[in-house]
Design a protein that fits this description.
The protein is mostly helical. It contains five helices and no strands. The chain has one domain. The longest helix is centred in the last third of the chain and has 15 residues.
């Protein structure tokens, strides 16, 4: 967790994001349609890799953000 929005999202589902926060960027990507498509297809396509590059994220960071989001929903 790197900011207030990340702290809130860890406790419960939150729709707050900070543009300069790496954790928020990972969470935003994890909620996006590119990540959902990649998970369903099982293959990272060019569009998803471009989004990762744009935000300076790794696939593992986005997967971890997705797992944290699911844990917060429970």
């Amino acid at each position: 967790m790197t900011c207030d929005a990340c702290t809130q999202a860890a406790a419960k589902v939150s729709h707050l994001f900070h543009a300069g926060c790496r954790g928020c960027c990972a969470r935003a990507c994890a909620r996006g349609q590119d990540f959902q498509r990649v998970r369903k297809q099982g293959v990272q396509d060019h569009r998803y890799r471009r989004a990762l590059q744009q935000f300076g994220l790794t696939h593992d960071e986005v997967k971890a953000a997705n797992a944290a989001d699911k844990a917060a929903q429970s």
